[in-house]
Design goal:
Blueprint: E1 2-6, H1 9-12, E2 21-24, H2 31-36, E3 45-53, E4 61-69, E5 87-92, E6 104-107, H3 110-117, E7 126-134, H4 142-150, H5 153-163, H6 177-182, H7 187-202, H8 206-218, H9 227-241
Parallel strand pairs: 1-2, 1-3, 3-7, 4-5, 5-6
Antiparallel strand pairs: 4-7
């Protein structure tokens, strides 16, 4: 199942005719309650479409190459399949941002959606598409928001149709399967490892990741004896990639 998530009804109003199930989550703090109602499975995919604040040109659209939120680790949804649109870092905030950095996008739900989705599905099954609506000074009307989203309906349809194909989600498996088995990971930790492999690929750090794993194997720490040891190794991998 492809879930197409929007925060606002006026965003969803422009998305008729798309494959998948459209869910209106509500913005900001309302979002987690809506997500709890969805029974996400490892075979599902998530496409978040919505407006964002930015100093960039109003109406321009971007795929989030990363999404961050104060006090939380940065997440990396997929960008590999959507090269026809430019990419940008996305920052999720808890209130309307009036002072913005020149090279960032701002929204109020992207991180909450990505964090929820990446606990169950790999980064290759998550895409965040954001359309610049304002620079924090004047908020657009509901009709203007609908029109902004509709102006990118062609690109959105291409992405939604591709994501809705009944195919196994493509993981980022630069590590051999026997390595992941030997780490004794829980399902949650497997998804974290998938996220780390994805980050290593998009940041050109696969050699660093493979070097860390090789060192751990030579030192006898892999195979792990417990899930606790697997947790420690995941944390070490994360530190090495920063």
């Amino acid at each position: 199942m492809l879930y197409i998530l929007t925060a606002l009804k006026c965003e969803a109003a422009a998305l008729s005719g798309l494959p998948g199930k459209i869910i209106i989550t509500g913005a900001g703090g309302l979002c987690p309650d809506a997500l709890k109602e969805l029974d996400l499975t490892p075979q599902d995919k998530v496409l978040n479409i919505g407006i964002s604040g930015s100093k960039r040109e109003t109406g321009s659209a971007y795929i989030a190459s990363s999404v961050s939120m104060e006090g939380k680790k940065k997440l990396y949804p997929d960008i590999a399949l959507w090269q026809k649109l430019p990419v940008s870092e996305l920052v999720t905030v808890t209130e309307v941002k009036k002072e913005m950095s020149d090279d960032l996008l701002y929204d109020m739900e992207g991180y909450l959606i990505a964090e929820w989705a990446l606990k169950v599905i790999p980064p290759s099954s998550v895409c965040l598409l954001k359309i610049v609506s304002d620079s924090g000074k004047e908020f657009p009307s509901k009709q203007e928001i609908t029109d902004l989203v509709r102006s990118h309906l062609t690109e959105i349809k291409v992405i939604a149709e591709h994501m809705s194909l009944e195919e196994r989600p493509c993981g980022y498996t630069c590590l051999a399967e026997d390595v992941t088995e030997q780490l004794r990971l829980t399902e949650y930790m497997r998804n974290e490892l998938c996220d780390l492999m994805h980050y290593a690929r998009v940041s050109d750090k696969e050699d660093v990741l493979l070097g860390v794993i090789d060192g751990l194997r030579r030192s006898g720490r892999i195979p792990c004896k417990s899930k606790k040891e697997g947790r420690q190794i995941l944390d070490e991998i994360l530190s090495s990639l920063r």
